[in-house]
Amino acid sequence: MTESNPKARNLQAIATEIQAIAQIGLAYSKDQFDLERYQQLMRIAAELFSPLCDLNSDHLSVEFLTEIGYSCPKIDVRAFIRKDDQLLLVKETQDSKWSLPGGWADVNMTPSECVAKEVLEETGLVCRVNRLLALWDTAKHDHPPHWPYIYKCIFDCSVEEGEFCASHEISEVGFFPLADLPPLSRYRITASQIEKLVKLQDSGSIYTVYD
C-alpha cells in the first residue's frame, strides 16, 4: 500500500487508535487479565501497522510497548528559511533525501529554542525565530504512513550568522531554488507543504495555518 491509498490511510488510523487504547489501558488498568488483553491489542496494532511502514511487526510491537502513560503525539520542529526564491534544506543521512532543518522537540526548552538548536546543530547557522507558520497533524497530510503520531511545528526563521557545516545526521546543507528542489524526505516534509508555506509567506498573512 502507498500513502496515496485511502485504504492504507484508514488502516493507519485504525492501527493508531488501537495502539492508543492499548497504551492507555496498560497505563491505568490494575487487572492482570485486562493487562494481558491490552498487550495483545498492542501486538494486533503492530501487525496492522507494519506492512504500511515497512517495519517488522515484532520490532514495532516492542516500540509500542516502550510507550508508557497516556498516548500523546510527539512534537517535531522545523525551520523554514528562505533567501529570496531559495530554500534552506539539509540532506538526511538516514534516507539520503532532503528536508527542512529540525527534529524532535526537547524537554526543558521552548519550541523556538528547540528549532534554533536544531538549525545550529544541523547546519552551523545561528538563526532568529520569527514566528510559527504552521502546526500540522502529519496524519492529515501526504506523508507516508509512519510511527509515532506526530504534530509538526514549522517556524519562519532567518539566518543571523554562521557557516555551513554538516553533522552525523546531516551529510549536506544548501539553499535550493523553490522551482527545482531535490528529492524530499517525505516522512519529514512534503512538496505540497512547502508550497503552502511559500504561499503563506508571500501572501503577507500574519496567521498560523493548522491541522
TrEMBL record:
Q: Where is the Nudix hydrolase domain?
A: 72-198
Know the name of this protein?
Answer: Mutator MutT protein
Q: SUPFAM superfamilies, per this entry?
A: Nudix
**What InterPro entries does the entry give?**
NUDIX_hydrolase-like_dom_sf, NUDIX_hydrolase_dom, UDP-X_N
Organism in which the protein naturally occurs? Legionella birminghamensis
Q: Under the GO molecular function aspect, what terms does this record hold?
A: catalytic activity
